[in-house]
């Protein structure tokens, strides 16, 4: 079972945590002390042309018409070279990475195939030069919400820009996962609710039946209320649905508890 501080090491001065999403990439490190968020996009012209990442890429495209590449598709790496370039530029610029052997903790979709996970890990390693560990994104989000991972019947719904996942967590580990995006582009809620019921029907743990709803799509008005009605579960949402995954990764990387008023930042 993962607990806060699971990836922390005494004497380790630097560690990077990365939430690499289809629409946005988020980075946190102890040295940075805050979450940096940039669009997951690269201005990717021919060799020798000017390249830029994140907001700078969008601005460059507006000014010069430079072609834009979105390195991730449906939550997994689609353009390997552009993904490496994006991460290399952002980690050096914002987190001071560049020293060899800096460990990295990165979130991965719970339903990603082994090959997709390996491709993402390889891109992060190529960009940072450090040892890479992975944690399922819905599990990281659950850690950030401080729910009882070892005592509750917990199902997590992660509604991302390019991927929607429903995950059952038992004793602090992911024991089942399903992907529901693409079933209905207009309204995903019925398919999500069906997956929640399906994944939760074999759980007989006593106690509250909780549904944690996270990801950028969770902020859509009415989604949480409809899921509560359709699944008969008590719904919990993080204070900021966009940041739950990176905050959970930060918890895993820290040796000290986070500041109560600034999730993801340790108490001084």
Automatic annotation (TrEMBL):
It is found in: Cytoplasm. InterPro entries: ATPase_NBD, MreB_MamK-like. Keywords: ATP-binding, Cytoplasm, Nucleotide-binding. It holds the Pfam family MreB_Mbl. The keyword Mitochondrion does not apply. Signal peptide: none annotated. GO terms for molecular function: ATP binding. Its main location: cytoplasm. The keyword Protease does not apply. GO terms for cellular component: cytoplasm. This is Rod shape-determining protein MreB.
């Amino acid at each position: 079972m993962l607990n806060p501080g699971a990836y922390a090491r005494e004497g380790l001065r630097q560690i990077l945590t990365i939430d690499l999403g289809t629409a946005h990439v988020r980075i946190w490190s102890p040295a940075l002390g805050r979450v940096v968020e940039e669009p997951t996009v690269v201005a990717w012209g021919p060799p020798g042309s000017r390249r830029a990442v994140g907001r700078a890429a969008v601005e460059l495209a507006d000014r010069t018409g430079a072609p834009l590449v979105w390195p991730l598709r449906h939550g997994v790496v689609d353009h390997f070279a552009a993904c490496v370039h994006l991460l290399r530029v952002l980690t050096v610029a914002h987190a001071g990475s560049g020293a060899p052997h800096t460990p990295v903790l990165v979130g991965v979709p719970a339903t990603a195939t082994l090959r997709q996970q390996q491709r993402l890990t390889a891109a992060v390693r190529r960009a940072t030069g450090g040892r890479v560990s992975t944690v399922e994104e819905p599990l990281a989000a659950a850690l950030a919400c401080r729910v009882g991972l070892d005592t509750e019947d917990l199902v997590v719904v992660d509604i991302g820009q390019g991927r929607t996942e429903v995950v059952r967590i038992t004793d602090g580990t992911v024991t089942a996962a399903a992907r529901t995006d693409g079933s209905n582009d207009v309204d995903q809620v019925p398919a999500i609710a069906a997956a929640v019921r399906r994944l939760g029907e074999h759980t007989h743990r006593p106690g509250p039946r909780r549904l944690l709803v996270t990801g950028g799509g969770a902020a859509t008005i009415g989604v949480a209320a409809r899921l509560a009605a359709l699944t008969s579960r008590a719904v919990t949402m993080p204070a900021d649905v966009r940041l739950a995954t990176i905050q959970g990764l930060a918890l895993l990387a820290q040796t000290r508890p986070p500041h109560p008023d600034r999730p993801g930042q340790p108490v001084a």
